[in-house]
Amino acid sequence: MKIFLVIFLIVVFALNTSAKNFPSSNQIALIKKIVKEVHVKKTADAQIENAKVGVSLSDGGQVITKSKSLAIIILTKDKSLLTVRENSILNIYQRKEGRGLNTSTNIEKGVITFKVEKQNVEDGFEFVTPSAVASIRGTSGVLDVDSTETDILLEEGEVFVQSKFDPSKNATLNGGKKLVINVDGNIEIQDLDENDKKKIDDAKKTNTKKLNIITPYGILEIEYLTN
Amino acid sequence: MKKFLMILIYFVLVTNSIAQISNFVSNVKIENAIEGESLKLTAELYNIENIYRIEIVYKTFGESEYKNLEMVISGTQATVSIPSEETIPPFIEYYLLIQLKDGSKQTYPLEIEQGASPIQIAISSKSEKSNQVIVLSPEENEVMTEDDFLISLSFVRASDIIDITRTKIFLNGIDISSKAIVDQELITITREQIGDINLENDYKVEIKIYDKNGNFVSTLSRNFKVVSQQVARAMESEFKYMGLIKAEARNENTNSNQIFYKNILADFNSSFYEWQLNANAYFTSEEKDNLQPFNRYSLSIQNGDLLSLKIGDAFPRFPNLILDGKRVRGFTGELNLGFFNIQTSYGEINRKIEGKLLQTYSANDVQLANDIISINQSKYNAPFGKVIFGSFNRQLFAIRPSFGSGENFQLGFSYLHSIDDKNSIEFGTRPKENVVIGSDLKLSFDNNNILLTSQAAVSVINKDISTGTLNDAQIDSIFTTNKDLNINASDVKKIRDLIDKFITVNQYLGPWNPQKLSSLGAESSLTLNYFNNNIKATYIYRGNDYQSFGQSYLRTDIKGINLIDRIRMLDNKLFLSVGYESLKDNLQNTKLTTTQFNTISASISYFPRMNFPNITIGYSNNHNKNGFDLNDIQFGKYAIDETTNRISLIATYDVFYLVKHSTSFTFSNSVRKVKSFQNGDSKYSNISFNVSSYWNKNLVSTFGLIYNNLEYYGYPFNYFTFSIGGKYTLPENKLSLSGNISPSFGDFKRQTFELLVSYNLLENFVISFQARVFRIPDKSTNSIVGLITRLNI
């Protein structure tokens, strides 16, 4: 009886301690939707080409949106969604550390709407802008970036933000708040006001609608974004 | 060859069978028996005119305490969903408790109280590997345009054993795997790959995943819709809505009684950004003043998890010692801010039902009896009357503020007050009042791998508030005139004034022995989830006087421990579960002796997700014993010493021979040995076998066998049932026909015939005809004939 017990325990132990190794990640994200003119570089070394639904981005991949355009990209590791609004440039990188996948998006300019899924303990997600590094574990909001300043409008969750040039200047931003950080590392946090909320709503609009107005001089077509 | 051998072995097992019969339930359909997902059960009913209420009584593996949930009766169906937190492998055991309008009860399956075994539902686990394959697109029920058409899978998280190139993708049953672009860890199919065809349609995409040896691992599926740009624009309006109206007219012929039923159900759901508005109503001709309500209606508004407000019928869920499973007609709502949350419910849980005056008595000829009470003499010309008691209108108010989101921490405090309106009816007895206060705590660490939950509540009940609170004169008459009591009347008045703010204070207020924790209910559990072991240890304590009007089914006068370990192996394919429970009663020494209830249970499940049956084998041993010796002359008749041993087997398997045949086989055997002078032993065996064959997309056939063998107090009760049926859908799904014939033989004889015809008059309008005939040889032939219309808005 004891022998059976020992064998059983060995088998159970062996079955339970078999380590799992994730394969390295090659494709970081996938283009799920495009509106109007969007260009991509699939990898850091690739040529710029017109974006199509279903195109994947690997380490160093880039998305460029033109005027009145947008692209929705979805991360292959956890289905997090990033919407790259018009006139924006986003670069994406990912590295494997142990069992974890750390994703980094470098935004040179523009507006990004994000809905980042809650990250596993081993994983990470961060936005890097000319003025800040924002670490996220699962949250949604809008990032508005230019060369001197980064605005983060947070709907829910929590973001840890630090100055790109002086990490000692940092803050934690909670849902319902707005953070502004400039290249000098100055940080301001305030509640979302009505304008901010409208900005978030506008940034969520990803569908186009057309309105035709018949005039004596012809048909005037107005195309606009909506939810 | 191996495959045929396995099929042969599997069918050889099916030599005898058991099944369930009932005078009220035709069959029970089960959807989605998967770990961590709510489990919906639908019972098809007949003899509905006799049914007052149906409850599902269920428990998870290793527990001896059953939980009850009321089923919602709608037309000829009763439905219920077992909450997702209760769907834990290896299985759930359940039976249905059918309360009849004449006050009697029946179970499904029959004879549960005589030793018949409850039904087991195997709960299959989720494959960790299927969790690791991510469907990037589409989302479930996504609506997309042709330009946005995208099917995509990510294998970034998949195990090394998965072979991405073997993945099969079916779109509405058609294999489109050859169109997929497989690029390292990603599979995509876009509009470009599908080709230049019109894609506007409803779709179901099924993805079958295989390992490197070609073994099937798991299936994933998503439903989605492709629409034109114009339709997409219309659907992308901020305001979305959908609705359903269903009307039924039904004639039931039971024992020569003809009863005509009518009911109408309306359901409306709409959304505006994050807000959802839902309204539903069910009105039936079965609604009667002398019964609790059959009609149901509610209107609710919800904003995600943040806010929920509901008016009408609701089944609020508070900590289960306080309020759980009760229908409350009134207002129910909750606000969850995370750091602070509040949940409340206020409304009627029992409708007033007036009693009946049967006979009057003068003061001279009145007799002493429970049902003879004083009545309004001026109204009835007599001071006393014999009555059938009605039931009072009972109102309930519950509130639970809590702190913390519940993700890692939550501390809650609950208060419940429930009272009978003593003036709501004329002929009633002993209106009652109940107050319960409690607290609950949840703590979790290390990604929920360590989970501590705890709750405790204290109840106070007044068993007769008809005379109201004691007045000063009454208190003085007791405590001033009886100096021996050595209690100051003014102190009593102060205490009365304090307690009276919460509950009526009089001689019927209890418990009388609170210092003995008689009205305390408490339980605490610690769950550890490490090394593929899920260990849960629970301690429960419920005093003999603990009672909450918000919870009707709690077992009281019991304390003890419950230990369960569920061991997952081979990527959740193999489960070994063991449990031990030790409980005892007589906590306040209110019984002659204490009874000890000990249960050990074990189960092993194998869910191979390949060409071999899913199998669950279970064993349990329950021993109940009290302190009396059977041979004791004075107390021997109260002696309890009984042992029940039970074994069970559930096997399901999809056989592919010409077409797919989904088969299931169950076996259950229990033997109860009772040491007593009477022969209280019982034996029960049940075997059932069912097969559903999918001949093509329009034709499905079903075949079932059941064998049941019960011996109770030495009397056998055996029967055998077989059923054969099918469903045929005409092309384009305009017309569907389904029928079933099911005769039973042996000690239970019955023949049943069922027919359902549905026709889609319009795309959103369906008309159905339903006929059921039940014949009990030499006794009766009963029938149900109904017409159902259904309109989707």
UniProtKB/TrEMBL annotation, chain A:
Alphabetical UniProt keywords: Signal
Signal peptide: 1-19
Upper lineage: Bacteria, Pseudomonadati, Ignavibacteriota, Ignavibacteria, Ignavibacteriales
Name of protein: FecR family protein
InterPro entries xref list: FecR (IPR006860)
UniProt cross-references to Pfam families, sorted A to Z: FecR
Coiled coil: none
Keyword NAD: no
Organism name: Stygiobacter electus
Domain FecR protein: 66-159
From TrEMBL, chain B:
Protein name, as recorded: Uncharacterized protein
Organism: Stygiobacter electus
